[in-house]
Structure formats: C-alpha cells, structure tokens
Amino acid sequence: MAKPSRRDFLKQSLAIGGMLTLGNSDPVQAGPENILSEDRMGVLVDTTVCVGCRRCEYACKKAHDLPTSELETYADQSVFEEMRRPDVNALTVVNAFGNLKNPEMPYMVKVQCMHCNHPACVSACIVGAFTKQANGSVIWDTDKCIGCRYCMVACPFQVPVFEYHKALNPKIKKCDFCFERTQQGQIPACVEICPMEALTYGRFYELNKLAHDKIEDEPDRYVDHIYGGSEVGGTSWIYLAGTEFGDLGFPELGNNPAPGVSEAIQHGVFAYFIPPISFYALLGGVMWLNKNSKKSEQESANA
Amino acid sequence: MHSMMKPEPVSTKFFTPGVIILTILAINGLVFLGLRFFFGLGAVTNLDNQFPWGIWIAVDVAAGVALAAGGFTTAALGHIMHQEDYHVVIRPALLTAMLGYTFVAFAVFIDLGRWYFIWHPLIMWNGNSALFEVGLCVMAYMTVLYIEFLPIITERFMNRVNLRGIFSRFNRPLDNFLHKLDRGLSKTMFVFIILGVVLSCLHQSSLGTLMVIAGAKIHPLWQTPILPLLFLLSAIALGFPMVIFESILSSRSFGLKPEMDVLSKLARYIGPLLGIYLAFKIGDMVIRGTYIYLTEFTTESLMFSIELLFGFIIPLRMLFSRKVLNSPRLLFFASVLVIFGVLLNRINNFLIAYTPLYPTTQYFPSFGELSVTAGFVAFEVLCFRFFVKNFPIISLPQKGITPQAKYAIKGVQP
C-alpha cells in the first residue's frame, strides 16, 4: 500500500471533521472573519530573477527599526552556506538553493510571512491578537498578545518567532507586509529596494494573472505552478520558480485552509452552545432519576 | 448516610524523610522559576522558534489536566449516577483535582511570555481558537472545584471558630456565616457538580483539538480529527486509575488499610473504558491507514508502540482479571501503567509527534525546565499532605461501629 500523501491526509481529515460536526459548518466559511476583498494586495516573487543581493533584508530592518549593519556588508555571500529562517532581528531572509541546470546561478528564495487568506495564526490566537486586514496583511497586536506561542505551533510555514530572551514585554515577530508604510501610500520596503524587480507589489488578482502570463510566455524558465496560489487556501505572497518548489524549501501543503478542521470541530462542539447545554440537561435528568430511584428503593426496604 | 467510614483529618507526623526530599525539590524548582521571571523564558528553557512548546505545556498542562480527571469521573459516578458506595473516594479525588488544576494554572502562568496579561482571554475572545476554549473552561472549572471544596472547609471550621484577642468578637458572626454558607452550598451543590462534569468534558476534549491545527507537523500516528474524542476518552479512562493510585499510596503513607472493597469495584470500570478508547484509536488508524507508519523504525513509531502496549493494552488485559482486581499490589501496578500510558500519550502528542518544518535541533527539556516541573509535582504532593492532615478528606474507620451494626441500621441482612 502506498503511503498516503499529506494532501490525502488533509482531505480525509476534513471529511471526518465534517462528519463530526454533522456537516453544519463548511470549513472554508468557518474561517475567521476574513476580508478577502477584490482589492487586496499581494507580492509576486520571481525566484528566477533574484540574485541574492539581500538588500531586501537591509530595507526590512530599516523599516522595522531593527539593528542592522551597513548596506555594503549585505554583499557577503557566505551566509548562504546555511539555510536561515526569519528571526527576531530579521523578519525576512534570502536562502540559496543549488541549481542543477546552471551551478553558477543558484536559486535565491526570499522567505517571510506568506499572509495567508485563511491564516492559522488568526484562527489559533487565544486573544485574537492576529488579524487579517482588508489589504491582505496579517498583523499582530502587541496590546493583546499574552505570549502563549500557539501561533507558532499553528503556522503552516513556521514563520512567527518569539523573543525568548526578554523577561518583560517579549514580542511575537513576523513580517507585517509593511502595514504602516502601505497605510501611508508607500510600498513595502523590500519591494521598493529590490534592484532586480524580483518582487512585484500590486493587486492580488493582477499579480496572479501576471504570474500565469509569465509561465505561459516562458514555459522553459518556470515550472507550471504558482506557489501560494492555492496552498492552504491561497496566500497574499505568491512565488514563481525554475524548479520544483519542494527543492527550494517550500513545504508541501494541501489546498485546504490550515485552520479548517480545527474550526469545524470547535464550531461543531459549540454550535450555538446547544451541545453543552443539552449535555448539562441530560446529566441533570440522570442525576434526578438516580436520586429518586435510590429514595424509593430505601423506602421499600424500610417498609 | 449510614456510614462506618467518615472523612477526618489524618493525624500523623508531617515531616518525614520523604517530605524533606520533596521540600528540597520544590525549592530547587523555585530557584529556576525565579530565573525565568528575571531573565526570560530563553534563559531557563530549551525552547526556540522551532519548538515553541516544551514540557511545561506537555507535562504540566496537558498531562496535568488529564491526571486531574479523577475529580469529574468520581463526581459523575458518585453524585450523578448516585453510587453511594464510592463516596469515600470522592473527597480525595476532589482534592487532587483542585490542586491539580491550580498547578495547571500556575504552569500556564509561568509559560506565558507575557504572564501579566493572563487575564486577557476573559475579555478578548476568539471563538475559533481551541486554546481560548481550553483557557476559559479551565478557569471556570477551577472556580467550580473551589466551590465544590468549600463544604469541606465549612465542615472543618463550623462550631470551631476560635479567633483570639480583638478578633474574638467576630467568632459568632463568622460561625453564623459558615452555617449559612454550608446550608446554601448543600442546596445548590448539584448545579456545580453537573457543571463540573460538563466543563471537564469540554476542555478535556479541546486539549486534543489544540494540535489539530498543527496539521502535518504532528506525526500521522497521532494526528487525527478525532483527537478531541481520544483525549476525552483517555481522560475518562484515567480518572479511576488515578483515584486508586492515590488512595493506595496515601493509605500506605498514613499507615491505613487500603479500601479494597471500594477500589476493586471501581477498578471494574477501567477495563471497559480503556477498551472504548482503544476501539476508537485503533479504528481510526485502520480507517485512515496510518498503521503503515508502524512498519518503519523511528522514534515516533517506537514511542507510539510503548504508549499503546504498556499504557493501554497490558493494563486492559490485567484489569479484566479477578486476581488483579482483588490484589492491592497488582491493582496499584495496573493503575500506574494506565497513568504512565496517558502521561506518555500527552507527551507524545505535544512533543514527540511534533516535527518543525525546518528542524535544525532536537528539543530536549533543560535542567531548569525539569527542575520546575519536578518542583511543581513535589509542591503539589506537599499541599495534598497538608490538606489531608488538616481537613476532613480521607475516610477513616469509625470506632464502635462494626459492619454488622451498619447493616443492622439499614435493616438489610449482610
């Protein structure tokens, strides 16, 4: 028997989850109150264009008041020897992956929050500190967060990080799609600085169309897949690549929103509080019956 | 109630060599706890961005909640099913649950990066979050447990209020208040007892929902949409073994005879309850075909096999044997196996099954984490001992009433 793929697994999970709730909640609609407007923004990352100059890393730190060295130091390519992940002082990082077709030109992949359409962090957060904004950004509210780190457990891309070494006011950190800048009419810092135009910022539907056109125009250059187009129900950041996404450190995820099964269960158990209240009434009835039968038993024994 | 057993404070020496060791463990834990609050979670724990949750969540919280399941299972059996024979085990189980949940709350508190915002879920709601439901239910159930425990406090102090000096004038009003409280509580207690069972079922299952959202990060041997059901069923199955374990242990510790007549009757329920859990667990594996992961030799498959075999299948077989049910030693051993099984199940679900997408290290608890967890357990045992010695918890045989006399009152021949 072949091993079930993760996709099959998720599909089955959804089916069983749906059965559990007697089909009264559609997992996709059960998502948090998302505003998936037609106007929402996104970024198209063309990994075949990126040269790994890492200026985006610099611009990101500048835009988010994080400690950084001078821009010149970012030319250092030795950091590519190890795969890096976003950290408390680097909300985005670029990684290099070997290119079999052209070893001189490794594939460069920028990593940051994908800004899911149905974010697991938004669904998981105990106090609702994460929200999905109308422009597509998923942002975090420092005034609400209690530091439980469930968002990190839930995120299907392993993006949020936590300031473990701060005793007071540690923060959850992740790319916020430059929410403050975009609110003021600016474009995200990383997109602005990119010299190769590997990053394209714009309305999601236009970007999606652009990505399809690019694949159609140069089928030899790109694999026929837009990562983020359908993964976990779609993301605001989408990627094009010259080789399989699995070889570039992208997780293989199903097309169902990450919080789907969990929310179906939650909403099933708490459907308008009917199940808990019925259970309470049932137990009350059982208790009353048992007490009465014990009483009449004793009375007949004493008689 | 006609009873030859009556709960009374146990009068033995408080400080024994065991107690001194527990005190040392508790103080050692406190030291690391202090470091955590002064220098942050990273200074004491081995947690990082790949492994956001460690043993403080897996053991202290997830397993802690399951190990306190004796409270609601005995309440359901004794009060809701109205089986009066089991009333002798209800108070110790209630105390265990009350202390257990108090320490679960402590564990959550110290694990929160921003512990001073622990009250936020009360006013900032997210109904989609399984953790939110767990949080609110645990808070509510803890309150219910304190209310259920109140009659034990009033019973201890009623007619015995004796404040000294200038406070002596409060003796009378305080005693009147205790009497009123006691009367009010005994009339309304059924509301809280049922509420306790409902809340327990809700959050025991929601603890299982927690890891569903982690999707493929959880190994398929554990990840299933019926996780909440499995968590609930295993918690219910763990309730009575926990009561038996703690009853036999405290009998030994206080030099009393184990209440075997009650315990073996209680133990008869465990086998079927384990069977129901296993039926769902194995049925789920067969339906979704996850048993194929058992053919490969990995940490996950090994831990899974240990959990299922030693924690569930062997005790299931043992508890269907009359010999085991009637022997304090074997019954104790079988109960320990079930406790081990559920404890390991929670650790497996939250730690062993959890694989980050980009693992560069493996999580193993630091000395500080282990110290704090051990300190909590030690402190909890000390609290249990304190309560048992100062409040009417454990039922002691009453002098001057023989079993015959008891049955004679009831008018039923033995």
Descriptive key words:
heterodimer, A: about 300 residues, alpha+beta, Alpha-Beta Plaits, three-stranded mixed beta sheet, two-stranded antiparallel sheet, 9 helices, elongated, B: about 425 residues, mainly alpha, Formate dehydrogenase/DMSO reductase fold, about 70% helix, disordered C terminus
Helix and strand string of chain B, N-terminal first?
A: EHHHHHHHHHHHHHHHEH
N-end to C-end Cα span of chain B: 17 Å
CATH class of chain B: Mainly Alpha
Count of runs of 4 or more consecutive helical residues of chain B: 16
Q: Tally the helices of chain A: what do you get?
A: 9
Main pleated-sheet profile of chain B: 2 strands, antiparallel
* Biggest chain contact: A-B, 76 and 76 residues
Strand composition percent of chain B:
under 5%
Shape of chain B: globular
Oligomer: heterodimer
**Integer count of domains of chain B:** 1
Q: End-to-end span of chain A in angstroms?
A: 69 Å
Any idea what the CATH architecture of the largest domain in chain A is? Answer: 2-Layer Sandwich
CATH topology of the largest domain in chain A: Alpha-Beta Plaits
Report the sheet with the most strands of chain A, covering strand number, pairing sense and barrel closure.
3 strands, mixed
What is the average per-residue confidence, as pLDDT of chain A, rounded to a whole number?
86
> Which architecture name of chain B does CATH use?
Up-down Bundle
For the record, what is the CATH homologous superfamily label of chain B? Formate dehydrogenase/DMSO reductase domain
- CATH fold category name of chain B: Formate dehydrogenase/DMSO reductase fold
The beta-strand count of chain B equals 2
What are the low-pLDDT stretches of chain B, counting only 5+ consecutive residues below 50?
400-414
